[in-house]
Amino acid sequence: MNKTSGEELTEALRSLAQAYAPGAQVAPCAVLWPDPEREWLGVLPQLQKLMPELYVLESYAPEERRGPALWLRCIEARVVEGAPPAGTVPIFYLPGMSRDTLRNAEDCTQEVAALVELQYRGTLWMHLNGREWTPYAFLVSKNGGLELDVAKDQATKDALAGALPALLELPVSQLRNRRLDAEYFNGLLAPDATGLLLRWLAEPEAFQKSRTAAQWNAFCQLCKTEYRFDPVKDGPLKGTRLLAGRDALWEKVWARFAEAPASHPGLPACLRRAAPAEATVFESAEIWPDVNEREEGNLLRALETLADRPQGKAALGLAELELQHGVRREYPWQKLGLSPLATALAPLARLAHLCQSSHGAPTAEAYADYYALTGWQVDAAALATMAACGAQEHHGPLLGALRAVYLPWLEATSRHLQNLVQQKPSAVGKRHAPLQPAPGRVILFSDGLRMDVARLLADKLAEAGLECAADWEWSTIPSVTASAKPAASPVSTEVQGAAAGDPFSTRSRTGNQPMNQDRFLAALKTAGWQCLKADETGDPAGSAWAEAGTLDKRGHNEGWKLARSVGTEVDDLNGRITRLLKAGWKEVLVVTDHGWLLLPGGLPKVELKASLADHRWGRCAALKEGADPGVPVLPWHWNNSVFIATPPGAGCYRASMEYTHGGVSLQEMVTPLLKVTSGGTTAGPARLSNHKWSNANCRVSTRGEVSGMSIDVRTTQTDADSSLLAGGQPKKIGANGAVTVYLENDADAGRKAEIVLLDSTGKVVDFLPTTLGE
User: Fold this and answer.
1) Model confidence over 268-278: pLDDT tens digits?
2) Burial 383-411 (b: 16+ CB within 10 A, else e)
3) Pairing outcome for strands 54-57 and 91-95
């Protein structure tokens, strides 16, 4: 059995109570444990947990099994409450008392005299050399001790005194066959010297107050040994400058900070205080947050000069800024949110690079293929740049530079598609026949699911282990929901166009009534489709139509700030698709009606006289009969006798519109089609598969069906209060079946614990033993 040092000590004391010859001797009435230097006093609470029969000579506190000599005599006589049961020999720990004190009865105090008689009816725990047992002697002794290899120097003995509580919890097998010295014992109290040093530098006073005297001394000794630095004599200011110097001894300390700077939020302020008066070298932005802040200001001013430049010069300027400032994204300040402009520069520079080529094609079909394959990446980069716009003062410079490179590309690609469509309007007819009902088929309609957002969704689905086949389809002219949604549905054959006076709305072929939402759903039901509400999964044995997502609504309400909501929309769609497949549907076909143009500051204004149109929206207008608007004119998808005026390029009939659709552009007209299946395999039961520690964080991988589950790290598997994670809360598993968790306290490194997999109710499903930090 792999016993701990504390258990071995307990066994040694208890065996002494049994060391007598039955029939020839009587059992000792008590085991007396003298400790003149009080070297064992600090571990008595631990040992009392192991030995319920252990009592301490001290001031009266019976609930803690402490009391004066007379009370101990009463315990031995079993005449007071709290005495051990018959047959169990009590053990009396006597701090400050030696064997000689008991033997010199005539010289001892009246209180101690009450215990003198017990040495004759009981037994003393003494070393073979006749001396009292010390912790050091117990560790090294071959007779009655653990026979361990412990250094004899005073530093080791001093360190042992502080490390004794931790030492008693370690298995003896872990202590054998190794040299136990001051460094080892100090390491027990400060197992993660690097992490502790960073914590002390960040909050020196709070850190020292949180440590016991033994722990503080051990920490100081480790700093002297490993970093040639004395926290007491040198102080935190010198320590911070040594950290910034990153010499051979301190390089790993800086690397630890740079890996997870958010774990040490006080350090940036310390580095600001420790910074030299003049830090002129640009590379020092990696070390000094003040220099990084200054470079952010330089970048801001440089971006402000790009808004009014031609596309080529603006793109060249952004490329140069990326070369200069892109490296700062690798510095710890980026992880702390202190380099927002350098962060936003990454997608902006990519956008500038992609926009320098507008690409052409001989046919509308070929042009749409280009956009569906690679062209959408331009819009994705623009969207990512907008999403990275944080502080108000950054909006103008970032979005101005974005507009300088993005608008010319939008204009060029839109005009090219418009020219191709004007030459052959039939080229943008529907490519796919209306979907037919099939067992296990559900159509999920998402209003305004543009191609770049659909690609994000496809990536999410793939991470979750789902199969996602992508294709594309034309929207309608005009590319607005009233016209395009019925055309994207399986009941498009039941729909017909209205007159020019209707705002691009359709009518039912049966009864010629306006095709509102109620009649649309009724037509679906008649055609054999279930119509699912947002929280319904329906009957997978049949076919169904479902709707999800609010991209279009958000765009009209939020303008360019829609970019900040795209991630949420993608997560919501991913969740809806996953739930449908789990409910038993064989395939989810994701369709949409149209895309959109999104440009901070608004699309260019195009004039169109109101007298020429029956009604006019941002990117389309229904012309009156015989009107000549001087802009591209195309027939309405639902009625060839009604003509639609579409603004040239990326123009808009209304001023200051940042988000709109209805015209002819790759973004509005080329819409995604996704076919999502589970791949025909079952995920299997949820299990933990692997874990890897990197200092105070751990990457945990799982297998099987783990949706909705979470990970915790605990000292006691079933006790949620024993969590060691930051915030004391489990962390949800990601869509890829993995999650990174972080320890609340770096000092826990080296402790034994268990990684537990929890279902949605908090029940433990699986666990893995681990050593924190290893």
Assistant:
1) 999 999 988 77
2) bbbbbbbeeeebebbbbbbbbbbbbbbbb
3) parallel
